[in-house]
Amino acid sequence: MTYRLFEAKDHAAIYQKYRYMPPDELKNIILQYLDKKKGKPHVLAVDLGCGTGQNSRLLAPHFQEVVGIDISEHQLEEARAVPGYPNITYRKGMAEELPFPDGSVDLLTAASAAHWFDQARFLAEADRVLKPRGCMALLSFSDSETRHHYQDCGERLSYIYGEVHQVLQLYATSPVAVSEGKLQELYSAIPFPDKERVEGIQDKSSISVRNLVGFIESWSKFQAYKKKDAQTAEDLLLNTQKRFLEEMGVTSPDTEIEQKLEYYCILASKPL
Fold first, then answer.
1. What separation in angstroms does the CA of 31 have from each of 25, 56, 165, 215?
2. CB 44 within 8 A of CB 106
3. Among residues 31, 206, 175, 42, which one has the least CA distance to residue 112?
4. How far apart are CA 17 and CA 257, in angstroms?
5. pTM for the complete prediction?
6. Distances (CA, A) of 169 to 157, 166, 219, 223, 261
7. What is the chain's pLDDT, residue by residue, as a tens digit (272 residues)?
8. Strand 147-149 vs strand 256-269: parallel, antiparallel, or unpaired?
9. 3-state secondary structure the chain
């Protein structure tokens, strides 16, 4: 089944504004794996389900060419509007039908996207387009491990975040559960014998209450909720922001809190 949940223009704008860039530590793990398995030069990286290009831009300084692929033209419009990195191009397409010759890609990545792919068709395409010893890196973070902290309140902020997550879980599609299960089935199905999973990659940063609520708005399950009842969905966002501010004892939504995300990454290398 094909899921097309990120194609609306307003959702694409929200996605560009509030979605996170993967941390440098995770990028370094991927590049070190590629160096070890294939070695330089790093010619072509293909970022699947690239959305508005956060992961594509992270890879750009390390490859001669980066191509971002996404099914949503509105997402790609947002990605193209970000200045810099002339070696990135964005194309509309699917992870299951890649516009590249056999054995032409050094690195295939998917950041918080692989759970949307048709597993068998994607893995067949990955096997086809990767160079011998070319690598695949499928990365995401676990919402259940996300934590927030402000001065002397932490558990309560994380509780509010988790509670919103549970409210919206009723509107989650089955691939979201696959992502939250850390792509276990997809990992098992990867046909390459050389594969590994790296977990517990922590990214600590500061985020404003406003942007944290905006990140919740970018979730596919929030957008599904919004389609069902736009006013109630908007009320949920406003109430969530209010609860955060009251718990913190502040009034400005630009107040920053500490956030800890925990990433995982599946790495695999195509044999000779």
1. 10, 14, 32, 27
2. yes
3. 175
4. 18
5. 0.88
6. 19, 5, 11, 12, 19
7. 344 444 555 667 786 788 788 899 999 999 999 999 999 999 999 999 999 999 999 999 999 999 999 999 998 999 999 998 999 999 999 999 999 999 999 999 999 899 889 999 999 999 999 999 999 999 998 877 889 999 988 889 999 999 998 899 888 776 666 666 788 999 999 999 999 999 999 999 999 999 999 999 988 889 889 989 999 999 999 999 999 999 999 999 999 999 999 999 999 999 99
8. antiparallel
9. CCCCCCCCHHHHHHHHHHCCCCCHHHHHHHHHHHHHHCCCCCCEEEEECCCCCHHHHHHHHHCCEEEEEECCHHHHHHHHCCCCCCCEEEEECECCECCCCCCCEEEEEEECCHHHCCHHHHHHHHHHHEEEEEEEEEEEECHHHCEEEECCECHHHHHHHHHHHHHHHCCCCHHHHHHHCCCHHHHHHCCCCEEEEEEEEEEEEEEEHHHHHHHHHHCHHHHHHHHHCHHHHHHHHHHHHHHHHHHHCCCCCCCEEEEEEEEEEEEEECCC
For 253, the token pair is 């939504």
